[in-house]
Design a protein that fits this description.
Elements (H helix, E strand, L loop, with lengths): L20 H16 L1 E2 L4 H4 L18 E2 L16 H7 L5 H13 L4 H9 L2 H5 L5 H9 L5 H13 L13 H7 L7 H11 L4 H10 L16 H7 L15 H8 L6
Parallel strand pairs: 1-2
Helix pairs in contact: 4-5, 5-8, 5-11, 7-8, 8-10, 8-11
Length: 264
């Protein structure tokens, strides 16, 4: 152990008393990668915003290191043939609670399984992939595995969220005024999407997502994913090969969630 510079140093990571919890976590991760001699490069999208993507960044694999091309040792390992439930368990963030609570509300409100399923999946873009335009990403992720109506509704909720519908008691979310400012106006492409959705035969399916989309959700309420296993079984065509390996048009998107840090 070397304590000559005030740091505790054995074979483990360098941890100083003044480090925050997240700095410590970073140090532990770096140490793990160091030991495995692995180099992890961050995708441009992961840092865009924090860094200006047009500026040069050193993405060269350091000599003597190997670029990460498989499982990231810092992440829970996924089964070889992952199911939707495995993604909930091993890849989706704790905000999946919002999905469970929305699905639970739809269940309590007596909606059919189609609506419950749409509510359960409506924000998987946010909880597992990319926030921006999450309705579109989410709809695409599930399109091969649910009915066309469910994936259409998930896409539509992106725009419908911004527009009240008094006929069903849906008001503009009070939280949006706080988050985006009282004068926020959706982009023209969202306005167009809303107009198209308004006239669509499945409008009410998309609208019901927004109606059961709990914003004032209770972070302490416990809804168990187990309660929805049967509904998922009946309404999500789980591919035999596993999500990511069924050669569907969106398989690569699921693989990216399995291996988000793969070099290529
Ligand atoms: Fe959403
Ligand atoms: Fe939501």
């Amino acid at each position: 152990m070397d304590t000559s510079n005030g740091q505790t140093r054995a074979s483990g990571p360098v941890l100083r008393p003044d480090m925050t919890l997240s700095e410590r976590a970073d140090a532990v991760e770096e140490h793990l990668l160091e030991q495995l001699n692995l180099h992890v490069a961050k995708s441009v999208l992961f840092t865009s915003g924090e860094l200006d993507p047009t500026q040069p960044v050193n993405r060269i694999v350091p000599p003597g290191k190997q670029a990460l091309m498989g499982d990231d040792p810092r992440l829970p390992r996924m089964p070889d043939k992952p199911t939707l439930l495995d993604f909930f368990k091993y890849r989706f963030s704790p905000s999946q609670n919002h999905l469970l609570q929305s699905a639970n509300l739809a269940l309590k409100n007596g909606h059919d399984e189609k609506i419950i399923m749409a509510c359960l999946l409506h924000d998987i873009g946010v909880v597992g992939f990319i926030r921006s335009d999450h309705g579109y990403w989410g709809a695409q992720l599930v399109a091969p595995y649910v009915t066309e109506e469910v994936s259409w509704a998930i896409k539509a909720h992106q725009a419908l969220r911004f527009y009240p519908d008094e006929s069903v008691g849906y008001e503009y979310p009070e939280a949006y005024a706080r988050w985006f400012g009282s004068d926020y106006e959706p982009e023209p492409y969202i306005q167009d999407e809303y107009r198209r959705a308004r006239d669509h035969k499945w409008y009410m399916t998309g609208r019901l997502i927004t109606l059961n989309d709990l914003y004032a959700f209770d972070p302490n309420a416990v809804v168990n994913l187990d309660d929805f296993v049967d509904i998922i079984g009946r309404n999500f065509r789980q591919p035999e090969e596993g999500l990511g390996f069924d050669n569907s048009p969106v398989a690569h998107m699921w693989r990216t969630m399995i291996w988000p840090t793969r070099f290529l």
